[in-house]
Specification:
By secondary structure, this protein is an alpha+beta fold. The chain has one domain: NE0471 N-terminal domain-like, CATH 3.30.2020. Helices cover 26% and strands 24% of the residues. The chain has a three-stranded antiparallel beta sheet with strand order 1-2-3. Strands 4-5-6 form a three-stranded antiparallel beta sheet. Strand 1 and strand 2 form a beta hairpin. The radius of gyration is 16 Å and the shape is globular. The model has no long low-confidence stretch (mean pLDDT 90).
């Protein structure tokens, strides 16, 4: 069941600024960076199938949200430019990400550093055409 306080009154995909903007009836506005949404996708691919930190997502700095579909009254299904589209972002999860994004960013950047990952996609090797 959806708590009315977690249901946004307006949803905007801000492609230029790479933000998902959620506005609420009480005047609150949350802006969630696309990269944050992608690396904290609630999908099994990202979170894993059991306990633990899940799969570290790397190279997602330039990812875009390419689509958003409402799922009933409880969630938003986002599609990303890297083909990922299997996570259902509940309204309460989106609020948690928005309100605590500094902590999520700090944890993500620390994990990238600890595991030798990068926010940038690997450069494609230059190939000489015959």
């Amino acid at each position: 069941m959806t708590d009315a306080s977690t249901l946004p009154s307006d949803i905007r995909i801000r492609r230029q600024s790479r933000l998902l903007q959620l506005s609420y009836a009480n005047g609150d506005v949350l802006e969630l960076p696309f990269e944050l949404l992608r690396v904290y996708s609630p999908s099994a691919e990202v979170r894993g199938h059991g306990t633990g930190p899940g799969t570290l997502q790397t190279g997602k700095r330039d990812v875009l949200v390419t689509g958003a579909d409402m799922v009933g009254n409880y969630a938003l299904k986002l599609s990303f430019s890297d083909g990922h589209d299997s996570g259902l972002f509940t309204w309460s999860y989106l609020q948690d990400l928005g309100r605590n994004q500094n902590d999520y960013w700090r944890d993500y950047l620390a994990r990238l550093e600890a595991e030798g990952g990068s926010r940038d996609a690997p450069a494609k090797p230059y190939q000489i055409k015959p």
